[in-house]
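Appendix B: complex inputs.
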Amino acid sequence: MSSTKDHSGVTTVATYPIAIEINGKPQQLDVHPWTTLLDLLREQIGLTGTKKGCDHGQCGACTVLLNGKRINSCLTIAVMHDGASLTTVEGLASGDDLHPMQAAFVKHDAFQCGYCTPGQLCSAVGMTAEGRAETSDELREHMSGNLCRCGAYPNILSAIEEAMPATREQLERDKGVSR
Amino acid sequence: MTVKTSPVGKPLDRVDGPMKVQGQAKYAGEFPLPGLLYGHIVNSTIARGRILHIDTRAAEAVPGIEAVLTHENRPPIASYDKPYEDDDAADGSPFRPLFNDRILYNSQPIALVVGESLELARYAASLIKVEYQTEEHATDLLTNLDQMSTAPADLPGPRGDAKQALNNAAVKVEVQYTTPVEHHNPMEPHASTVHYLPDGTLEVYDKTQGVQNCMRYLEDVFDMEGQIRILTPFVGGAFGSGLRPQHQLPLAVMAALKLKRSVRVSFARQQMFTFGYRPRSIQRLTMGASSDGQLQAIYHQAIAQTSRFEDYTEQQVEWSGMLYKCPNVTLDYQLVPLDVYTPLDMRAPGGTIGVYALECAMDELAYAANIDPVELRQKNFTDFNANEGKPYSSKALLECYEQGAERFGWSKRTMAPRSMQDGHQLIGWGMATGMWEAMQMPASAKACIDATGKLIVSSATTDIGTGTYTVMTQIAAEAMGFPMDQVEFKLGDSNMAKAPLQGGSFTVSSVGSAVQKACQELRMKLLDTVQQTPASPFSGKTPDEIDFADGWLFIKDAPEQRVKLTDIAAETGALEVEASVEPGEVRDGYATGTHSAVFVEVKVDEDTGMVKVSRVVSAVAAGRVVNPKTASNQIMGGVVWGVSQALHEETQMDHNLGRFMNHSLAEYHIPVQADIGDIDVIFVEEHDEIVNALGSKGVGEIGIVGVAAAVSNAIFHATGKRVRDLPVTLDKLM
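Resulting structure:
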């Protein structure tokens, strides 16, 4: 698959093929060496669930799970991730069943405008997998890379606290499957 | 058959929640279009002068670059002021992007580079060389006070004789506060995606708080009446930044018209600092009271910055003449024009800074008179708005003080500063009153039954995160008597029924009233239609005697007498009603407002000066609350904004360059998760049948007003230091 734009001139700049699994689906993509993982998702393959808030790693709206670890997708170049497995907000739910974290965000009204939400969700799932934050204050600290300008922080915290046990179970199950 | 309960007043989940948590909600810069081009804006690097020459050749030579637009080659645009005057325009001559060679402020858009990809356009933009003729600029409010003149605001005239009363007052406070420039910085940067249709008309996905405002603006500026449609299904926050069309919109349209292609222009985060903002201000207050704390006189003067081309005004000082009972009041509001962009309404515009000053001054007065801050406010309570000479339609502020103080534990507070230390931490408890207007604007809504029997209601409003989709669905469901899942509310399309800008906390009161009326009328129309049938069992029945369930219309007392809604629709064509609601005449005799009492605990580290807001109680009187879940989220967000105003936010300018320095989310500080403690929201019961048919006053702004004062007052209580310059950063406490 060559998804690079084929207009005159630009084709003279080499693109590089990468194999990357996105939300469980293996993909072969040709990417420019300067394209960030975020722009690859949003502009090249139309996965606009991952948001661009600053493009400088300062807001966390672009957080995705790269090989299970949370990362600011605006700060990493797509071509570096040949062979990687990526989960975006579009890949959290299983079919019609929301991920426990997603369901808790709806229940606790853990957002208003929704623009930081995909990053908050991926970050919360990534944080759960890290297993380092337990108390409310620790959760607050470990979620402080994701800005929410609407100020829904208290509801975000409540949602995460409720969804962490189920998220942990799901992560364990997924680990079992991949073994 | 189950007994129906109204969904209004229930803490229901957002109807658009599942879309938002799955990344399915699409924002302005996310609509894919065939052959889409990307524009990148070039900004000026001087604050005042002229462009002598723009060399765009190197940029144009980049393969994949389709055009570089400047004032020299843009498509024709209107030359008079009028077409640029949108629904939220300030007095004056609105900024016209790429109009001519004049530079009016630093970072003004001066060119748009359009190319096949985002990166290409951005790269090519870096190759543009601009030669300027620079003129001397002035951007510092504090050093240009000699330029001030009276703001074109409709202030109430002096009441009584404040000067005389101040001379005679037993207790007096004379203080000055300063507040900085702040930028809205919604998480979603502004963006416009222009779809160039084969017939030359445009469909524009835009980030805005007013789809019809943007439609009219483009129609007028580009002389394209009837050829523009604006679509805004989701907005990634705005807080006022979308009240006026921002310049990415006309720039994207220019490129689309020039190239006859679809074009998207998005702001980079840095460019979110190149248009409106909350103005820097000086607030001067002199207050006098009797020895028992009865207010005798208030003098409140505000001095704020504006641009040289528009006189931006907001309600900064009026609050001091209406919140408390005070016989002698003089209000004054001055503007200083500078070589900057025009300020723009930002969450609770004017109230956020004016009430901050008033409520800090009240705290200072409480200490001067040695009266508990809550008691001082209770003493000076009034249910009469003396600015307008009218009673309030409702004002449950005393209940806010009482319930808020009770929840917070205020009675355990000791009055003396530094009296509540906890080991190394200084503890401070502070409070303030908050207030906002309860406005209503003319609005319309359309209601119809679709082919499946579902109720579809629409209005050209937006949902900037406030919960409009959800609360309108609730209001429609109640008015029609439908279950929630049989109702769909649509918004964000300029072709829909007329709606005002989404701002000022008046969407529920305005659009909600129209939604309610449209549904009530549709209910009547349905009944009317079935009564036309010969020997109809419905004849003689009133709207109260009928009900709906599972797509059927039936008689309550005889549910077997029923008609399928889709059959009615099929026989008579689409059943559709459009209703408009104007603010009721009954309002004319009253003043209307929302009120709050905010209680704050801070912990201050004596050595580092670090302040942590550990808990906040906000007790709010806002009439009937349509959805306590989304409404309390609004209040919490407002509180977070207030904490931010008190401790974090400030856009700093390098006055040598006349340019903002900290134009990024790393250096423009807003609270993160770890900065926010517990926030407890109380909605005090308040019945109001005057304010509008719903009895609901709106909650978008009231949450922020008063919070910065309560935090500042808590910091004084903790440390004994009055910091009268926002934000209260640690250097000011050391």
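Chain B touches chain A through 66 residues (CB under 8 Å).
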